[in-house]
Design brief:
It is built from five helices and four strands, in the order H-E-E-H-H-E-E-H-H. The longest helix has 11 residues. The radius of gyration is 15 Å and the shape is globular. By secondary structure, the chain is α+β, with helices and mostly antiparallel strands. The C terminus is likely disordered. Helices cover 33% and strands 18% of the residues.
């Protein structure tokens, strides 16, 4: 149903489909940029077991067709209508670098 609403609001542009790290498919308007996509990911993981990893930025977004390079490293300014984006968690980052969000929580 959400996909149909997105399609009707934005005319002929097909929504971008985000396949998050938990297997959920999130359709978003193709007019969105990578900043808005990241905001949606943060919102989707604001509660639950993966909240800490996502709030610390321990995830990457990849083109669903070609996952060799993260979207954040590609200099991608605009996203293509109808494209798929895959989200993956970064493993092992907790031990290497402390998360700034953990320090903020301790000070509150």
């Amino acid at each position: 149903m959400l996909m149909d609403l997105t399609y009707n609001i934005h005319g002929s542009n097909n929504p971008i489909k985000i396949d998050d790290a938990l297997g959920r498919i999130l359709p978003v308007p193709s007019e969105y940029n990578l900043w808005k996509i990241n905001a949606i990911v943060l919102d989707q993981f604001k509660v639950g077991s993966a909240h800490e990893k996502v709030s610390c930025g321990e995830y990457e977004l990849f083109n669903g067709v070609d996952s060799r390079q993260p979207l954040s490293d590609s200099g991608l300014g605009t996203l293509v209508s109808g494209m798929s984006i895959t989200m993956a968690f970064v493993i092992g980052l907790y031990e290497q670098q402390p998360c700034h969000m953990q320090r903020l929580v301790r000070h509150l």
